[in-house]
Amino acid sequence: MSLPDGSVRSAYETLAQWLKTVPEGMLATRSREAEALFRRIGITFAVYGDAEATERLIPFDVIPRVITRPEWTTLSVGLTQRVRAINAFLADIYSKREILRAGVVPEDLIYRNPAFRPEMNNQKVPHDIYVMIAGIDIVRIDADTFYVLEDNARTPSGVSYMLENREVMIRLFPDLVAQHRIAPVENYTDDLLATLKSVAPTSSSSDPTCVLLTPGLFNSAYYEHTFLADKLGVELVEGRDLFVKADVVYMRTTQGPKRVDVIYRRLDDDFLDPLVFRPDSALGVPGLMSAYHAGNVTLANAVGTGVADDKAVYSYMPEIVKFYLGEEPVLKNVPTWRCREQEHLTYVLDNLKDLVVKEVHGSGGYGMLIGPKASSGEIELFREKLKVDPENFIAQPTLALSTCPTLVEEGIAPRHVDLRPFVLTGRDKVRIVPGGLTRVALKEGSLVVNSSQGGGTKDTWVLDQ
């Protein structure tokens, strides 16, 4: 919120003045009211392996994060560029593989990647779009520059919290909201539905049928699945609600079978079709991949997009952008050492106490080492892991992530944040709702913002002026 000289950034001037006038205890009261609202609505997420509780509320911070319109414009251009490059990369590695032949990305990084799906080789996807819904994690480590921390091209989550956070802020702080010209986020679901319909197979009707495929009630993001299906006005289905006949997907309804054209799937590749992937999957639809390969149904996102989520592949994204688009990346990567390369591994082993080490396929803040916060025992344990399986890890500097004012027990204090904007790619256009999900590390000094690791969320305001 503040510049190095202590003055308030222009975007935060109104908010800063408002905070000075807030009666003592009012923010804490509003925070409790927000928690009560979220609990009444049922906004929870599951924590696998948690012995104390299967579901939790994600903590919500009542002080918004503010982004200026020029900042958002730069972000939008960079996000659009990055997702275009990711789509081109995925189309290439499942067909001509020109980037591999050119030696830009190592072949073994793709072929030995557990997220690479040989079943997609030379299989055309509708309209050549692999990633219709992307969540790109953004961090800020200096005053003027945004960096990409991570790409989420499989089944990015969190958009329901973005929408509900805004709704709660409008209800609890109407006076503060009225003092700002905030770009709306509520049209996200309209944009998502338009995107899904635009990528329906060419054989579909003029009004294609879309469904949202969920693993079911016990999935950690089930609330979001039900929320989005309701907002989109589409059926929420499980695998048992669908069947395939003559390479066409149908949904069981009380009026009889109904053809399905687009499946927004929140189900991992492994469980989609027991005839192709895991034979023990009871969550998928037998024959789904046959219908998919026949071009009779669109899966959003496409099968095999997880390769682009890999943190080692992430380290090549600047080269990927240049290779396919012939452009310099608008959004920079965080400097990354690939432990699969001996020179990088040597450096990482010599500097573990200063680095963040991550599993290349890890997520949710698990399986990582934050060197400056780790004990000597934890560092030595990771050292052995790196020596045994260096290809499974990358390392990055410990970032001085930007902070935002956050309500904590002691009052208002700075806490580290990141931002997950959601990028929708349809046949006709790219759509990005101004804002996204700001995640905040609520523990003092913590750099881990994931909800499963004790992080919370904030409303994100893009000033529409």
Automatic annotation (TrEMBL):
InterPro entries assigned: ATP-dep_Glu-Cys_Ligase-2 (IPR051680), CP_ATPgrasp_2 (IPR025841), UCP005522 (IPR016450)
Name of the molecule in the record: Circularly permuted type 2 ATP-grasp protein
Organism: Phreatobacter aquaticus
Domain Circularly permuted ATP-grasp type per the UniProt entry, residue ranges: 64-441
Domain of life per record: Bacteria
